[in-house]
Amino acid sequence: MKILVCISHVPDTTAKINFTNGDTEFDTNGVQFVINPNDEFGLTRAIWFKEKQGAHVTVVNVGGADTEATIRKALAIGADEAIRVNASPTDGFFVAKQLAEVVKAGNYDVVICGKESLDYNGGMVPGMLASLLGYNFVNSCVGAEIEGTKATLVREIDGGKETLTTDLPIVIGGQKGIVEEKDLRIPNMRGIMTARTKALNVMEPVAADAKTKAVKFEKPAPKSAVKLISPDNLDELINLLHNEAKVI
Amino acid sequence: MSVLIYTEFSEGKFKKVALELASYAKKVAESLGTTVTAVAVNAGDVSALGAYGVDKVLKVTDTKLDKFNAKAYADVVKQAAQKEGAKVVILSSTTDSLYMAPIVAVGLEAGYASNVVALPVSTNPFQVKRNAFSNKGFNITELTSDVKVIALAKNSFGLVEAQGAAAAEDFAVTLNDADFNIAIQSQDKTTGKVTIADAEIVVSGGRGLKGPENWGMIEELASVLGAATACSKPVSDLDWRPHSEHVGQTGKPVAANLYIAVGISGAIQHIAGINASKVKVVINTDPEAPFFKVADYGVVGDAFQIVPELITKLKEFKANNN
After folding, report:
1. Contact in structure between B143 and B113 (CB atoms under 8 Å)
2. A221 at the B interface (CB within 8 A)?
3. Is the CA virtual torsion B167, B173, B179, B184 positive or negative?
4. Within its chain, how far is the Cα of B271 from the centroid?
5. Averaged pLDDT for residues B214-235
6. What is the complex's ipTM, to 2 decimals?
7. Chain A residue whose CA is closest to B257
8. CB distance from A66 to chain B under 8 Å?
9. Orientation angle between helical segments A68-77 and A189-197, nearest 10 degrees
10. Residue A170 pLDDT > 80, yes or no?
11. Nearest-CA neighbor of A84 among A123, A75, A130, A93?
12. How far apart are CA B182 and CA B62, in angstroms?
């Protein structure tokens, strides 16, 4: 089993979000970057396949040289090797095109992506990649088993779960649940040391037309102050929810 | 040239998000000087769509499509868009629609923008405002492709009734075997309970509730309000409540009309996941809890006294207002 895990380099979930350059760019100043959490759940499942079933795990990121610390972290967690496609990931279709080239060149039969990145929240790369490759695709996976060329996936649906079976090759859109939070790994010193010697190959992008562009960013309007209601006056809360907010 | 929408039909009627989608598409179509066509799969009576601005409904009927299958459904939407010559295709933000949207986009060589929260900023060039950075920012995205696919964020537009009747038309689609490479083995769906995805009101509990044995009052409050129950991440990590109830940045997103947080301090990741909700109420003993900074209404005090009293008062309120 050859697994490719696609990772995004995103602001830490606690990061303050600001914009710069006339609100046309995300302000990276003072921001800590991490492996996109949805991708990290998938990466951890891939490492499980490596340890239990002998899979070979490659991680890939489309990004500039500044993402290499994030890629090294994925290697420290246990991926065997890494690829960085040297391009700015500005459009989901463009990124999917780059990843499709990597998949074809490396002949991967299992591709694991997070269902969405927590920066642009586009939620499109896994599905576009599967479509470009003609691979089977299951999104929002909270369970994944692979035996030979057969895959069994558990997908989250509105109000429950669904168990699906299909054949490789496959693109899996992962999220929390494909492994549990407690299964996530903090790289140990040995992992960090060996990560330094693992291959991180840089590939140049192929030509692909972007189909979208981010024109501008805005921050949400400042919130007006909370209205505090005394615990002795809950009738007032009901009154406000009914007559002011009109939600009950 | 019409604007095409995919309207989800379930348990004998169109989902509310489908009607919201119709309302939104009507306004988009007006600004483009065109009409709205909906495509619906195995739907019964489609007249409800006309009341929200749909001009024409393409009815696809096929037993192979009884259960959702992303690739096959994407094929349906693609063929409907091609038949109508649609330049703008709009989907909702249910799990199923978000699953198939990127497949539809590749099929139509279209650009795709998800999480759209308002009418287009401009239609030429085609620019939309979308939620990004987990509700911590907005992003104006321009779709530069000929055909555009967008997904409307849930509860971001609301329902707008229109005068009109939708003309229904049977629509035959060509499906191929490759569309059905993924087989559904089983489905495990909660029945008779409001789901977080569909809920207008969500009642959520945090670690302040001290233990799973104290969730009875959360469930009762939810039941009085016809709400779904949810929980914070620590609560699901501690296995007090099932993972399916975890809402927040790495859990389920919530875009309800009313979100009531009980005993949740309001970590930034939690807020990110629920901030698309319109009205937020916080009940917490700690007046310094960060949640009060983003809430609309707050009660500082002991949830174990406040919630039971609130339940009693809400029952009276409901009895007097029905």
Report:
1. yes
2. no
3. positive
4. 18
5. 97
6. 0.96
7. A247
8. no
9. 120
10. yes
11. A75
12. 17
Residue B223 annotated in ligand binding = no
Share of chain A above pLDDT 90, in %: 94
Give the separation between CA B264 and CA B297, rounded to whole angstroms. Answer: 14
**pLDDT (mean) for A98-121:** 97
CB B203 within 8 A of CB B224: no
Lowest mean pLDDT of B187-191, B264-268, B286-290, name the range: B187-191
Residues of A in contact with B16 (CB under 8 A): none
Report the residue of B109, B134, B286 to disrupt the A interface, i.e. the one with the largest count of A CBs within 10 Å: B134
Distance between CA atoms of residues B112 and B210, nearest Å: 44
The neighbour count for residue A59, using CB atoms within 10 Å, is: 30
Record: contact A163-B100, CB cut-off 8 A: no
Side-chain-side CA neighbours of A169 within 13 Å: the count stands at 20
Rounded to the nearest angstrom, the minimum Cα separation between A224 and chain B is 8
C-beta neighbour count of B196 within 10 angstroms = 23
B268 annotated to bind ligand: yes
What is the model's pLDDT at position B92?
97
> Does pLDDT of A237 surpass 90?
yes
The residue type found at A42 is G
Report whether CATH 3.40.50.300 matches the domain A2-221: no
- CATH number for the domain running over B201-321: 3.40.50.1220
Q: Phi, psi at residue A2, to the nearest 5°?
A: -110, 115
Question: Does residue B185 have a known ligand-binding role?
Answer: no
The string of pLDDT tens digits covering residues B230-250 is: 999 999 999 999 888 999 988
For the CA atoms of chain B, what is the radius of gyration?
Answer: 21
Residue B286 clears pLDDT 80, i.e. is over it = yes
Contact predicate B302/A234, CB 8 Å: no
What H or E segment, with its residue span, contains residue A217?
strand A212-218
Closest of B96, B42, B103, B114 to residue B75, by C-alpha: B103
d(CA B233, CA B206): 8
Tell me: pLDDT of B192 over 80. Answer: no
Q: How confident is the model at residue B163 (pLDDT cuts 50, 70, 90)?
A: confident
Residue B150 tokens read as: 């967008």
pLDDT over 90 (residue B194): no
Token representation of residue A127? 């599905």
> For chain B, which residues make up each domain, given as ranges?
3-180, 201-321
Taking an 8 Å cut-off on Cβ atoms, the answer to whether B281 and A241 are in contact is yes
Residue B264 assigned as binding residue: yes
- d(Cα A89, Cα A94) in Å, to the nearest integer? 7
CATH architecture of B3-180: 3-Layer(aba) Sandwich (3.40)
B201-321 shares the fold of B3-180: yes
Q: Using an 8 Å CB-CB cutoff, list chain B residues near A173.
A: 99
Read off the DSSP letter of residue B29.
H
